[in-house]
Amino acid sequence: MELTAADILFYLFGFVSVVSALMVVFVSNPIYSALLLAVVMSILGIFFFNLEAHFIAAAQVVVYAGAVMVLFVMVMMLFDLKREKEEVARFSILTVLKIISVGVVCGVLVGAGAMITGDGMGFIKVSTTEAPPPPSMLLKSDINAPTKQTTNPEELKDEVVEITQNPQAGVEIFTKYTDTQKLSLKLFSKYIFIFELLSVLLLVAIVGAVALARSKGGTHHVTRGS
Amino acid sequence: MQDQKGAHTMLHVGLNHYLVLSGVLFSIGVLGVLLRKNALIILMSIELMLNAVNLSFVAFSKYAQNMDGQIMVFFVMTIAAAEAAVGLAIAVAVFKRFKEVNIAHFENLKG
Amino acid sequence: MGTTWLEIIINTVKIAAIFVIVVSTVPLLVWVERRGPAFMQNRLGPNRVGPLGLLQLAADAIKFIFKEEFIPTKAEKILYFMAPGLTLLPAALTFAAIPLSTPINILGYTFKLQIADLNIGLIYIFAVASLGVYGILAAGWSSGNKYAMLGALRASSQMISYEIAMGLSVVGVLMMYQTFSLNQMITEQFGYFSFLWQGSAVELKFLPNWGVFFQPLAFILFLTATFAETNRLPFDLPEGEAELVAGFHTEYGGFKFNMFFMGEYGHMITSAALITTLFFGGYALPFISPEQVREFWIQNGHTLLGFTGLSMPDIASVLTTITHLVVFLAKTGFWLFFFIWVRWTLPRFRYDQLMDLGWKTLLPWSLVNLALTTALMYFARIVK
Amino acid sequence: MTDKFLIATMLLSPLIGFLINGLLVNYNNKSYLRSGIVATVAAAISFLAAATLFLKLLGVSAPEVVKAHFFEWINVGQFKANAAFVVDHISGIMILIITGVGTLIHLYSIGYMSHDEKPAKYFSYLNLFLFNMLILVLGDNLLLLFVGWEGVGLCSYLLIGFWFTDSEKAKAGMKAFVVNRIGDAGFILGLFLIFILFKTVEFEELAKLTYAPELGWGLLTFATMFLFIGATGKSAQIPLYVWLPDAMAGPTPVSALIHAATMVTAGVYMIVRLNFMFMATPNTMMLIATIGALTAVFAASIGLFQNDIKKILAYSTVSQLGYMFLGVGVGAFKAGMFHLMTHAFFKALMFLGAGSVIHGMHEEQDVRKMGGLSKKMPITYLTFLFGWLAIIGTPLFSGFFSKDEILWKTFASPMGSKFLWFLGVLGAALTAFYMTRLMALTFWGKSRVDKSVHVHESPIVMTLPLVILAVLSLIGGWVGIPEVIGHIFSIPNGWEHWLSKQVVDAAAHGSHLEEWLTMATSVILAGCSAYCAYFIYTKKADALEKLKNQYGKIYNIISNKYYIDELYQKTIVVPLVLLSKWFWSFVDVKIVDRTTYLLADIVRGAGSSLRLMVNGNVQQYALYIVAGMVAVLVVILTR
Fold this sequence. Notes:
The complex is a heterotetramer. Chain A is mainly alpha-helical. Chain A has helices spanning 5-26, 30-50, 54-79, 93-115, 153-165, 167-176, 179-187, 192-214. By secondary structure, chain D is mainly α. Chain D has a two-stranded antiparallel sheet with strand order 1-2. Chain D folds into 3 domains: 1-140; 142-542, no CATH class; 576-637. In chain D, strand 1 (66-76) and strand 2 form a beta hairpin. Chain D contains 27 helices and 2 strands. Chains in contact: A-B, A-C, A-D, B-D. At the B-D interface, helix 1 of B face helix 27 of D.
């Protein structure tokens, strides 16, 4: 099978994301690294799109690129951080050690990633070849026949039951519904409790952030650089 | 790649490519955390690491035809957002107090 | 882009065409912006250059191009130059997902008058829209001017809070249409106002099947949220001339300022198109579904385009597409006028009023709307 | 009354006496009468119970054994030891001796301890001794015997060192205890070996087993050897006898009871009790016989030139014990037992006699400062006379019958030998000599008592036991008249018959003529040496001086007890002390301490080096996390 547009795009965006990730770490001005990180996140959004995780892709862009990075940029702008003199720790044995260990981590992860075979190293069943005909691709503008979605709850309900009891059924369902429905079916059936728990977590985070932001900053008066 | 379709199958994007990419991004994140002195940059590197993990989750979700991966990404996102919020709040508080963002100055909790 | 080279070419041509349409409407809007309010306030407006001041557009365009490019000393060079692009990019991208009209079937090919028909159209638009904030922040901060910075911060916080309100208000609509794809939504809105109530169908002849009648509250909320999102007048604190000179783009002149301008209007066009698609049936005629229109053209389409020698169905499909395109433009035009119309009627909000409105009224009401629609749909589904 | 009640009363009355005197009576009140009577009554009750028990055994239809099982003491795996007490033919005799002589000595002590500050303490210890001795004798298994064994060792220590304020006496007590402990160690090893070999320690079961005679040096020989070592410790034989002469530091009734009649005989009793086992190990028997004979002659020779009356009697006890072990060693268990009983009578008599002499002479013990007491202390003199006649073996007296029985068995028994018999006879002669010397120096001859001392006869409470014991030492021997004399007057040998069921002697073969001849030689020899001693010490005091300076060196050696104590001091005690000093200075300081300090240093060093890791540098912590992660990843992926 020759090179599809998607493959070209993957390599292009892959390269861009790696370069910008590196720049995020090594650029001296933090604002630029924040913006670059936003770029990386959008590119990841595109990758998700490629992997038929449409809702997650949109969510990624909205949540990460749109909100979290904006927070970072706003905070940095408030701090008005200009170029930093010596952003990376000066050259010392420790730095070498760090770089070596990161090299090892990268080697191990990339090696593992590259070597993963069909049986998924005994963890999960993975088919490294192309998944069954994906319902939609980014730029194939003409196909995309609207797939039939059942709306009445009874049919949906047994669908849900089917998933939880019979994981194998999961594969058929995987192809019948659009990505977002699949996600929501599972999310609100098997993982409903975690979903509610997350809301509590967010609440806690909000309260925490507000409390911290309002505090006068620091509990004991320590002169700078003491 | 033991894919039976022709020579240049190496180039056709499979699960391995995504995993390799997420591995690289993850190590860059770790590098950022280890090398940079600026607290905010460290927070951002952590975000980067989380994103790399998300990528591998989604890749696995697609190639294993199982929605759990995406659901996990969903959870990771919320947690990352919460973490970023709280992290930034702390950074703001610290900056207000010490007018300093370089973590080299915060080593009072010494052994 | 499709796999075959032909498709790729056709797609690029289509993208270019749509982009040109968007860009050309901007000067038109500017003209309307100047003439309309003048008319409302019983004054003339620009009429010196060309008939009714139409050439004024060209004059402004040329002016912007030739203005002196200057860069503030303390500015961050790179970011300063990137900022206008960053604002323009999302505006353009969001328009890609909006279906302009029915697909054309000519010579065996079908062309969709839509750059990208995504089955997640709506949240794609929201995603890209949320990136708009970067442009404003970058502009505000990189120009090194304190007022610009303040304007940028205000604008971004406003956009973020209203983004939530807009998102939530749309959820009600989504639950009704059960899909993100805008095409899908439009097909749901054909014909008469009808719905299933506990098994039995109910139909009201005098109302079209538009979203606005199903979700009136969502419509109002969405409308106000879009105003805030595009920094249009009641919410245009960031450029508040009175206090912050020109808000985040004070330091910009010449073409860069023009790009900001275009960005803002692009955003406005997209929002207007979105309102029509979500609530007013998109390119569909009120009571007539595209099929009926196509039938009509099959009977007497020949008279208009007989000379082209196309087969009858092709002609019919071309003609139906054109009619629907006209309908879509009419509706969007009306909403654009509405935007301009509101600008010269409502006073500007104070910053805290702005925030209260966003968090303390829009948000709760959209939650109420959400609850209401869920309840109604649930009862509607119970088969007696 | 049931046997159990009888045994219980016999055992517990001395214990109760001990408790009353020990706990209830105020320690330092002077009323010796009250505590004395309590102790004597307790001993008397115990004697009555013992007597009734003995009568139970006498009858024709009487049971062979009276047994009382109180509780199961130890039951671990195969090892089983019950608190059960047995009165059979052997222990029957012993309990009579212990309680009988014990009661007499208690009575005597009332008089003797009248001037003492803490009589209550003395009487409580005495009662405790009785209790322990009874346990030793009555125990139905070796372990219980050992309990009694240790108990009596303790009481002897307490009583020897009774006047502990005087450091000499305290040292003597300590010496007795330590030497006994060395013997006990041997005893314990023997006990263990027996358990290993036979998986049981009860006499009844041990008796049932058949023992193949072990000619070489097998385990059984070692077991019996170790038991014998215990016996030498307790009954003061050659290597471990040094403590007995020093034990005279205790009050005289104590020496009479413990170091004459009962405790020292424990070793002999133990061997007789296990006679079947000892018969199976000829090597040990030969060892016992030789040590017995040697001790007899050796102790007698030392006794010749002692000047302290109690030291003479102590060495005489050691020598007589030598005889008992000689008898037992040649397989004449019954004769050994017989001599044990007769010796208990006349030796207790002599000790008590010496006690009353000392009491009369107001704590004067040196024989050279006595003389001509026969007129001043007639009763003591007369009773002492009976004892003297018994010990030198004049016919008709108990000493003659038991000692000659042993000598005859040594001569005739297959295990015995002519040389041992000769040593025995030599010992008898020496015994006669120094006893007569004693009699001459204390009772006959002119009085060398200096004027200030007013000699007076002891009170009735002291002389009564003397008289009883004198009678016993006369008629004691008639119980076991040897058959060669007995059949003339048709008197059966009661003793042989009485012990024959439980004690099997080696078959002695020899004609009556030989027996008569050996008897005659020993009597004549003893008579001559007695006359010589009488002649030298009463008539020719100056001849003695001449003899002394002629053989000065030998005289010095013997009078200083062959310098045995000094020898032990040099060869054992000093090197032991030096060794322990070396251990302390080298092993302890250099090796043990050094290693512990080393460990401590290692830990502190590791601690400080680890502390460097926590230096506040956040990124270093991140590095550790990453390293950890890598390790985990590698492990998982290369699983």
